[in-house]
Write a structure and sequence with these properties.
- The chain is mainly beta and 678 residues long.
- It is built from 1 helix and 44 strands.
- The strands form 2 sheets. It has a 26-stranded antiparallel barrel.
- A hairpin with a 3-residue loop joins strand 31 and strand 32.
Length: 678
């Protein structure tokens, strides 16, 4: 004990401490203007107020009696701060020897109040709170929740975790929705900690039009990885002819011995209505994907090699997909390695693959193949960069009584001449590139012609693959013939920080071999390709613009993708524009614009928008507008979502969710100290 004045009465054993009195005992600190100690009862009296603090809480009171070990106490007119977030005002606090504290006639909140904001956003009034610091929980009895001073229906008995507890069993923030398809509905998630490595969340989901739904999410961490299982089941669903519907989604990964990794993904859903391409997940707002991938994969990545073996299939809700034609991969194996020793001065890499495909009509196909690749590069004295590539590609196909084998050589030489110029304000780099590629018009042997077994049905043409040796994405199709990939790149780096980049190029062929047409590749169907271009502009920490173009010699644009992002003090936004003309020969257009933005109205309010418009039909594709209120103790979210299905029917959804911050793991609000003047 330390104090400005200490007075001890030897006859009675009484000790009086006055002025800046502090008592230190096993991590607890007691501060008071005056402390009276009675040796016979071994207790301290604090008649003029005090502050008692330890590792988890700070308690202030009008008066109190406390034992000499600062463990048990009776406190009147108290105010406690738990984990620097939750404030409890009580008429009386009783601290017990087991470490628990009982608060009586209390008001609790994590909101900060001041002269201009005397009423907290929310507060809990209760007859009693029991705080158990060992279990890190608070138990409320005869409780009443007030929001902006208005009483809200709430369970009279409940418990919450202390602020800062990352995982604690209990109910999470409920949410309300109202949409065209499901009507009015609500969710109340219940989270349960199973052990230190696993937990589960159960969420009843009730709507006025659909059947009752039970959602479940199980998560487990293991010593070498982890996995999750997520799903939902609907009983007696009025939106479907089936009595039970649902979905299951699971994913996970595990690190095995010898650097192997096992990972998987499962996505399965009830088929609600294939005529409208709508599955259970889309109907209930879980996912809009109309193709659900499933796979399990074993892989190993090393410094100079990669190996994987996998199997999988896809569940489709598209009317254009026939189930019998969707293959099950049984299995797929791939290996690639860079040889340690160089050959003729260049690097050698080889890869091999094997794929088995089982179709619903009981047909089974196998594809085998491999690539032997040699590459080398040189830089001349005047800065010209010369690269040479040589590949030998083999493919074998077995199935349906037909076996084929093909081998194709590919050679290429590339010349780049980067030219740099530095001025007072910027650095300029101009780089012309010419890449000459040759492969046989037809490979040796017989190529794969079975469409069901072909994995290179379409090809994309953009600036990222302008200088690719093969633009087909799969293994079995090889870009053939003599061709020149020609391009020009320009970069400007300004000393003020902004950057400009431009790429433009074209493919010139000696002959049109008919590999590309309007049904499998835009911009490559003629003997010479369309022009491909990309432009990027970046201003430091503010503005970024990227544009990708595909246009013909008469400047007819068939593809234009534009992205513009801007960031300011209170605003961040991104505009996305897409124009695709004559998509793969279908005479259809994709012409849309999207906006993703957030604007902070003040310290507490923010407006968010995520919207896409179809510029062909002048109709909304989908969009969400959200209004968010968030301060140091609460988060309130309003949302309005609009979406059109494949039949042009509009769906509208309203959402509302209120989260009380300061309990458990949601207590770390970035502006925890509220804005009060003075």
């Amino acid at each position: 004990m330390v104090a400005d004045l200490l007075r001890y009465d030897a006859n009675s054993g009484a000790l009086t401490a006055r002025g800046n009195v502090k008592v230190f005992h096993e991590g607890r600190i007691l501060s008071a203007p005056i402390i009276l100690y009675d040796a016979q009862s071994d207790r301290l009296s604090l008649p003029e107020g005090f502050t008692l603090s330890d590792q988890t809480s700070v308690i202030q009171g009008r008066e109190a009696t406390i034992d000499a070990n600062l463990e048990t106490a009776i406190i009147l007119g108290a105010r406690a701060l738990i984990q620097e977030r939750l404030t409890i005002e009580a008429d009386k606090i009783t601290r017990r020897a087991d470490g628990t504290s009982q608060f009586e006639a209390i008001i609790a909140s994590t909101c900060t109040t001041c002269a201009e904001r005397p009423v907290p956003f929310w507060q809990i009034r209760a007859a009693r709170i029991i705080h158990d610091p060992q279990a890190r929980r608070l138990h409320y009895e005869n409780a009443q929740l007030d929001i902006v001073g208005i009483p809200i229906p709430f369970p009279p008995r409940f418990s919450t975790p202390e602020p800062g507890v990352a995982r604690a069993t209990g109910f999470l923030a409920p949410s309300l929705i109202s949409n065209t398809r499901l009507g009015i509905g609500g969710k109340i998630p219940y989270y349960r900690v199973l052990d230190a490595y696993s937990d589960i969340t159960l969420t009843p989901f009730v709507t006025s039009k659909g059947g009752p739904v039970l959602e479940a999410e199980y998560r487990r961490r293991t010593k070498n990885g982890g996995y999750s299982i997520d799903g939902a089941v609907a009983f007696g669903d009025a939106l479907s002819d089936e009595s039970v519907n649902g979905f299951i989604v699971s994913e996970g990964g595990f690190f095995l011995k010898r650097s192997y990794v096992l990972d998987f993904e499962i996505n399965l859903s009830s088929d609600f209505d294939q005529a409208t391409e709508t599955g259970f997940m889309e109907t209930y707002g879980y996912s809009n994907n109309d193709r659900l991938p499933n796979f399990i994969r074993l892989s190993r990545t090393k410094t100079d090699s990669y190996f994987e073996i996998s199997t999988g299939f896809t569940q489709s809700f598209r009317t254009t997909d026939t189930t019998a034609e969707i293959p099950v991969i049984l299995p797929h194996a791939y290996f690639r390695e860079k040889h340690a020793r160089r050959f003729l001065g260049g690097a050698v890499e080889y890869s091999a693959f094997a794929t088995g495909l089982s179709l619903g009509n009981s047909e089974y196909y196998s594809r085998l193949g491999g690539v032997l690749h040699w590459q080398n590069s040189w830089i001349t004295q005047n800065g010209i960069v010369i690269s040479a590539d040589a590949q030998l590609i083999g493919n074998a196909y077995i199935g349906a009584g037909t076996n084929t084998l093909s081998v194709a050589p590919v050679t290429a030489i590339e010349v780049r001449y980067p030219l740099a110029l530095t001025t007072q304000n910027a650095q300029h780099v101009l780089e012309p590139i010419v890449q000459l590629v040759w492969s046989r018009d037809k490979p040796f042997g017989t190529p794969i012609e079975n469409v069901d077994a072909n994995d290179s049905t379409t090809a994309e043409f953009e600036e990222t693959n302008l200088f690719s040796l093969n633009r087909f994405p799969g293994y079995d199709e090889i870009e053939a013939g003599l061709r020149a990939n020609v391009g020009l790149r320009y970069l400007r780096y300004a000393k003020s920080g902004w950057e400009l980049g431009v790429t433009v190029g074209r493919v010139f062929r000696s002959a049109n071999l008919g590999q590309f047409n309007t049904t499998n590749a835009n911009g490559l169907s003629q003997r010479n390709s369309d022009y491909v271009a990309a432009v990027s502009l970046a201003l430091p920490d503010r503005l970024e613009i990227t544009s990708r173009l595909l246009f013909s010699t008469d400047f007819k644009i068939s593809k234009n993708e534009l992205e513009l992002s801007y960031t300011a003090d209170r605003f961040s936004g991104e505009i996305r524009y897409v124009f695709l003309n004559d998509i793969l020969g279908t005479a259809q257009q994709q012409h849309e614009i999207g906006l993703l933005a957030q604007y902070r109205l003040d310290n507490d309010w923010a407006l968010a928008v995520d919207w896409r418009e179809n510029l062909v039909t002048n109709q909304t594709i989908d969009g969400t507008i959200g209004l968010i209120y968030e301060n140091e103790c609460a988060r309130l979210q309003f949302s309005l979502s609009v979406e059109y299905d494949s039949n042009g029917q509009r769906e509208t959804e309203f959402g509302l969710q209120l989260s009380l911050l300061g309990f458990g793991g949601n207590s770390n609000y970035k502006n925890a100290t509220h804005r009060c003047k003075g």
